[in-house]
Amino acid sequence: MHTIISNINKSFENRVRLGVMSVLIVNDWVDFNELKETLNVTDGNLASHITALEKERYILVRKAFIGKKPNTSFQVTSEGRQAFQEHLNALEALIKGKL
After folding, report:
1. What is the pTM of this model?
2. Does 4 fall in a domain?
3. What is the DSSP secondary-structure string of 18-65?
4. Taking the CB of residue 4, how many other CB atoms lie within 10 A of it?
5. pLDDT digits (tens, 9 = 90+) for 20-29
6. Any idea what the CATH number is for the domain that residue 17 is in?
């Protein structure tokens, strides 16, 4: 049975994951600290949600050094972009009362 919420992607139900994807959709690469400050979350909280999105192949993780300091940054994948857009479309349909 098809329900109005069946197209809602569980990967984006959490506010932190929704925030991560929203930030990454409109930016090319975003580093860990910038993402953490933008979303006002702890290191551990952000790391666990990043791991979940990475497992789904919705984001890419790039680890590099800037000078001698490690830097981790993230980018949305084309698969992640498509999944997030489908999620937004499902939310919009839900709000408008469409199937």
Report:
1. 0.89
2. no
3. HHHHHHHHT-S-EEHHHHHHHHT--HHHHHHHHHHHHHTTSEEEEEEE
4. 12
5. 999 999 999 9
6. 1.10.10.10
